[in-house]
Amino acid sequence: MNSQPAAASGDIQQSSVGDISVVSVAGTVDMITAPKLEAAIKSAAAAAPAAVVVDFTAVEFLASAGMGVLVSAHGDLAPAVKLVVVADGPATSRPLKLVGIADVVELHATLDEALAALQS
Fold first, then answer.
1. Is 68 exposed, middle or buried (0-12, 13-18, 19+ CB in 10 A)?
2. Pairing of β 11-17 and β 20-29
3. Sheet harboring 106-108: ordered strands across?
4. What confidence score (pLDDT) does residue 120 get?
5. Smallest Cα–Cα separation from 69: which of 26, 40, 106?
6. Where's the STAS domain (predicted)?
7. Distance between CA 106 and CA 48 in Å, rounded?
8. Backbone angles phi and psi of 45, in degrees to 5
9. SS3 per-residue string spanning 32-81
10. Are 68 and 99 in contact (CB under 8 A)?
11. Do residues 69 and 80 make contact, with C-beta atoms less than 8 angstroms apart?
12. What is the topology classification, in CATH, of domain 33-119?
């Protein structure tokens, strides 16, 4: 089974680890898929978790529209719900650092690292 078309369209999955909501994204996050990401973050936050982790591990391209969603979500959720992003590599963590979003939203290289930091 080929999962390429789903990944290309910004496939988004939600899960929970204790009182932490995880939004896992794959493929491309751009102006077409950013609204899906925004809706998924709002849905994850609706359960009033301690934190929402946005996992960009499987993201191949992160456009400014996706970064805008993160900034907006951070503004909407803080201080009641912490927003954390998992991103590593040139496609995700580099642009987040270059535009200064990593200064506003906590950034981790792996999901395990993010969960460990939140649970400590």
1. middle
2. antiparallel
3. 11-17, 20-29, 51-62, 82-86, 106-108
4. 79
5. 40
6. 10-118
7. 19
8. -80, -20
9. CCHHHHHHHHHHHHHCCCCEEEEEEEEEEEECHHHHHHHHHHHHHHCCCC
10. no
11. no
12. Transcription Regulator spoIIAA (3.30.750)
pLDDT at 34: 97
**Total-model pTM:** 0.91
Domain boundaries along the sequence of the chain? 33-119
First to last CA, the chain: 39
Q: What are phi and psi of 36, to 5 degrees?
A: -65, -40
Tokens linked to 111: 């999901």
Q: Which residue has the tokens 């950034």?
A: 107
List Cβ neighbours of 27 (8 Å cut-off, separation of 6 or more): 6, 7, 8, 9, 10, 11, 33, 58, 59, 60, 61
